[in-house]
Design a protein that fits this description.
By secondary structure, this protein is of the alpha/beta class. The protein folds into 2 domains: 230 residues, Alpha-Beta Complex (Spore Coat Polysaccharide Biosynthesis Protein SpsA, Chain A), CATH 3.90.550.10; 82 residues, no CATH class. Helix content is 49%, strand content 10%. The protein is built from 18 helices and 10 strands. The strands form 2 sheets. An 8-stranded mixed beta sheet has the order 1-4-3-2-5-8-7-9, with helices on both faces. A two-stranded antiparallel sheet has the order 6-10. Helix 4 links the parallel strand 3 and strand 4. Helix 7 crosses helix 18. The longest helix is centred in the middle third of the chain and has 24 residues. It is globular, with a radius of gyration of 22 Å.
């Protein structure tokens, strides 16, 4: 088969998948794209915005600093959204944003928008950022040039990007076989010292958790930040699209993307989310930072070396014993931890394992199916359960993790964070 015939065959398959997705999985509603000029973009950046009139201009200005050749190929789709029960102030702010956009404030950018704010177009009362992202991604699909294996990019309205943001993303997918990628991030410096301390402590938690997953060999070792991921549009469709969760939509989407098409970390650029407070979602960076500063509550749990070590041993045992019965595996994991067999029993591991063995005769397929079942959520649940009641100073805990990976841990949180930033390509500022 010639190259052209092969390309046509691939395109036909992709178009069938896209049509099926749009019919069965895409969001249904009254929403349409405004101000879109064409439908042959190689990429679309989707930015949900709720009362972001003060922040959005800076985000767009940072995008505007990217090279023209990449900006010309990229649609920037703003989803100006609020629920029906939104405050008057937030609704007014959204209307001001829509009015501001009609003046074409950045003519060098291909900016379009979706009005999910005006009367009759609002989201239902219990919806949130998940639906906002989904509306944008789903509508963007029909504006892409599917002959060029187009990309979808997730960004937030209060997040700044580097001048090489678009080149780094485009270039990554030229050499990557994975369907998705996370982008290095570092929250901007907060003006208030207490807020700054809170965001750095939270980043230390995020980065130490990722480091532990990497050392344990988890296939879910990547950050889940809504403003810092991208994927092929084909992978988005294959993963079933964005979910509609009020919060954590990024976590669950990337988990599904990892199962279907793979997720890896790209290098060479940095996004800088805002460190501001936020009460717009039940959990997330803004809520976590606010809880630390105002209520002196740390709403996250650092995970110990002991827990990550057990995870590593557990994953290694399963990979080596793919032909063993569930009873044999449960007996062996009991030697690793008393918590582990109880946790697996709660998940009906014996039934699941028997089904996996029946449906997947080959070792590679069985191992892949196990990792799909023992996913990012169950990994987090296990690690948290393993560390219940375990109290350790944060600097000591992180030092042990770093030493496990062969790095000097030290006893200073700032130095530990700086090292993890370097290891995770987030020190380019």
């Amino acid at each position: 088969m010639g190259a052209q015939a092969h390309d046509l065959k691939v395109l036909s398959r992709m178009n069938k998948q896209l049509k099926k997705y749009l019919q069965n999985r895409a969001v249904k509603g009254p929403w349409t794209i405004g101000n879109v000029a064409r439908s042959n973009y190689r990429a679309a950046i989707v930015i949900p915005a709720l009362a972001e009139r003060d922040y959005l201009p800076e985000t767009l200005r940072s995008l505007s600093a990217n090279p023209d050749e990449y900006k010309q190929q990229t649609l920037i789709l703003l989803v100006i959204c609020n629920r029906t029960d939104v405050s008057v102030e937030q609704r007014d702010n959204n209307q001001q944003t829509l009015q501001w956009l009609t003046a074409n404030p950045f003519p060098d950018l291909n900016i379009a928008w979706v009005d999910v704010s005006s009367c009759g177009l609002e989201m239902p009362a219990k919806e949130g950022v998940g639906l906002g992202r989904k509306i944008g991604f789903d509508l963007a699909l029909s504006q892409l040039d599917w002959k060029q294996n187009p990309l979808l990019i997730s960004l937030d309205a209060d997040t700044l990007v580097d001048q090489n943001y678009l080149p780094a993303i485009f270039n990554h997918f030229k050499s990557s076989d994975c369907g998705g990628a996370t982008i290095p991030f570092r929250h901007r410096t907060a003006d208030d010292p207490h807020q700054e301390a809170a965001i750095r402590r939270y980043e230390l938690y995020l980065r130490s958790y990722l480091f532990g997953l990497q050392q344990a060999g988890s296939p879910y070792a990547y950050h889940t930040i809504g403003s810092a991921f991208t994927c092929r549009a084909e992978a988005y469709v294959a993963a079933g699209g964005m979910n509609r969760r009020l919060a954590g939509e990024d976590f669950y989407f990337l988990q599904q993307l990892a199962k279907t098409c793979g997720v890896e970390m790209l290098n060479g650029t940095l996004v800088q989310p805002s460190p501001r407070f936020s009460d717009r979602v039940p959990f997330g960076t803004g809520r976590v930072v606010q809880g630390q500063v105002e209520d002196n509550q740390q709403q996250f749990q650092f995970i110990s070396l002991t827990a990550f070590t057990i995870l590593k041993q557990f994953l290694g045992l399963i990979e080596e014993r793919l032909d063993c019965s569930a009873d044999t595996l449960l007996a062996e994991v009991a030697e690793l931890s008393t918590v582990l067999p109880r946790f697996l029993s709660e998940l009906n591991f014996a039934e699941v394992w028997a089904r996996l063995q029946k449906n997947h005769s080959g070792s590679q397929g069985r191992w892949s199916a196990f990792n799909s079942w023992f996913d990012a959520l169950r990994t987090r649940q296990l690690l948290t359960r393993l560390d219940v009641g375990r109290e350790q100073p944060v600097d000591h805990l992180v030092a042990e993790l770093l030493a496990w990976g062969g790095y000097p841990g030290g006893d200073d949180e700032a130095e530990q964070l700086a090292l993890l930033e370097t290891l995770q390509h987030a020190d380019m500022i």
